[in-house]
Design goal:
about 500 residues, alpha/beta, 2 domains, six-stranded mixed β-sheet, globular, binds nicotinamide-adenine-dinucleotide
Length: about 500
């Protein structure tokens, strides 16, 4: 079995805790590697290394252009290694190879984009309403940033954090999910090849309470970029508060995918399936509430059920597979619990509704694509994040009702709108309480446009120009050129 080590200060190290944990292949159900189960002492070493790298040595000595060049070099290396990284990630999280490979190839763009942005972070010279003063503003890095990632898209979500953090001149300590740490450790090794100085990127693996929590609480960590569930997100926010640390939180969702009566139904059926069954529904942006106009409800549901019923379940490495395994056992149990909850609430099961054995004698955990109709928005299946292939279908009669249902939820990560009417697309998208609204498409993200949640779906934004500000602080510098000596007891 492969054995990984921690990556701290440019070197591979066994955990000071002396403990290890196994990482599983969700398809075979077998452990395939050993990962350090680090503890607070390892976090201390990693934060110390990141702090040293931030304050002295090569990294702070680089100008922004040189820093950007290193990130773009890293992007080239990541592109060359995309296939290898994708295989490792599939082995660890069981997502379809076709999707993970795309993600691993796409990930490099974050380093190109933010590498290019590094030397375009400009301050300003505000005109000051006082004589003999020159005022300049500078955007400065924060220091050590903690990047905490979940298991569903470990590398892509790390790129969303690491690229702007490093472009801004910070250093990072990464804490990947305990279920999917291998690809992040491989990523760190590649940063070294790109000439990113030691200590700038550090990776500490282990559990949330044993590694994540001491990292968030460490006094030298100035910012936490977290993606995960709302329970851990709330904990992170609370733990960061006494140190007045910057926090960005990318949390869960219960996104509404709304199909109006004038929609292109072929596209919309496809979008509804992609919204909930891609990645076996294990995505934060899952369109897990499908809102159908009453006039198309029955026809749409029939088409959806017929298409989703044919989804090929199997080996995530196979190009023919459409629905792969559930990544973790707790997640599998949670999905099955929600299926029971929905049945007990009176939702009408129209597809799936249970587990399926893993093909070819494997031990992986699979859940059938599942659809519940006649869901009302007060049911738990309409309000709570399942994070699995379980779709709740609701009916509406007019635009006002669709908007009201869509917004009547704690979350606000994303929404889909399917209509051929430009006027309706504009009006509805303006009124949806969601950080991303897709019109006639679903599940697209890009390095160029901000991503983040309204309401309980998070704080702050990743991606695009906005994200770089999350890793910078502004300093206002006053230069006085007057010759007088002013009254020291009055404010200038
Ligand atoms: P999780 O919250 O259980 O864990 C996320 C990460 O936080 C892991 O690395 C975990 O070890 C760590 N962690 C746990 N407790 C911690 C603590 N007290 N302090 C610091 N770190 C801690 O989430 P998960 O099960 O890995 O991922 C699924 C969740 O992630 C879902 O809710 C999903 O919606 C969300 N998610 C959100 C986005 C987004 O961009 N909004 C993207 C992907 C996943």
């Amino acid at each position: 079995m492969q054995k990984y080590q921690l990556y701290i200060d440019g070197a591979w190290a066994d955990p000071l805790s002396g403990e290890w944990m196994e990482t599983m292949n969700p398809y075979t159900g077998q452990a395939w590697a050993r990962i350090p189960r680090a503890g607070a002492a390892d976090v201390e070493a990693a934060v110390e290394a990141a702090d040293q790298a931030f304050t002295q040595g090569e990294w702070p000595g680089l100008n922004a252009t040189q820093r950007g060049l290193k990130l773009r070099k890293f992007a080239e290396i990541l592109t060359g290694e995309a296939e290898r990284l994708a295989e490792i990630e599939v082995r660890d999280n069981g997502k379809l190879h076709a999707e993970v490979l795309n993600q691993c190839r796409y990930m490099a763009q974050w380093f190109h984009y933010y590498g290019g942005l590094a030397d375009k972070i400009e301050g300003s010279a505000p005109p000051i309403d006082k004589p003999d003063v020159l005022n300049l503003t500078r955007h400065e890095p924060l220091g050590v940033c903690a990047c905490i990632t979940p298991w569903n898209s470990p590398l892509l979500l790390l790129a969303w954090k690491a690229a702007p953090a490093l472009a801004a001149g910070n250093t990072i300590v990464v804490k990947p999910s305990e279920y999917t740490s291998a690809s992040t450790l491989e990523f760190a090794a590649l940063a070294e090849q790109a000439g990113i100085p030691k200590g700038v990127i550090n990776v500490v693996t282990g559990l949330g309470e044993e590694v994540g929590q001491p990292l968030v609480r460490h006094k030298k960590v100035r910012k936490i970029a977290f993606t995960g569930g709302e329970t851990a997100g709330a904990r992170v926010n609370t733990d960061a508060a006494p140190g007045f640390k910057r926090v960005t939180l990318e949390l869960g969702g219960k996104s509404a995918n709304i199909v109006f009566e004038d929609a292109n139904l072929d596209q919309a059926v496809n979008g509804a399936i992609s919204g909930i069954f891609a990645a076996s529904g294990q995505t934060c942006i899952a369109g897990s509430r499908l809102l159908l106009h009453e006039s198309i409800h029955d026809e749409f549901l029939e088409r959806l059920v017929s298409l989703a019923g044919e989804a090929r379940i199997g080996d995530p490495m196979s190009p023919d597979t459409q629905v792969g395994p559930i990544t973790t056992e707790p997640q599998y149990r949670k999905i099955l619990d929600y299926i029971e909850i929905a049945k007990n609430e009176g939702a009408r099961l129209v597809l799936g509704g249970g587990s399926v054995p893993a093909p070819e004698g494997n031990q992986g955990l699979f859940v059938q694509p599942t659809v519940f109709a006649d869901v009302t928005n007060d049911m738990r299946i309409a309000q709570e994040e399942v994070f699995g292939p379980v779709l709740a279908v609701l009916r509406f009669t007019d635009d006002e009702e669709a908007i009201a249902i869509a917004n009547d939820v704690n979350y606000g990560l994303a929404a889909g709108v399917w209509t051929e009417s430009l006027r309706r697309a504009i009006k509805v998208s303006e009124r949806l309480e969601a950080g991303t609204v897709w019109v006639n498409t679903y599940r697209s993200t890009s390095y160029t446009t901000p991503f983040g949640g309204y309401k309980a779906s998070g704080l702050g934004r990743e991606n695009g120009m906005e994200a770089i500000k999350e890793y910078l602080q502004t300093k206002s510098v006053w230069y006085y050129s007057g010759g007088d000596v002013a009254n020291p007891y009055t404010r200038r």
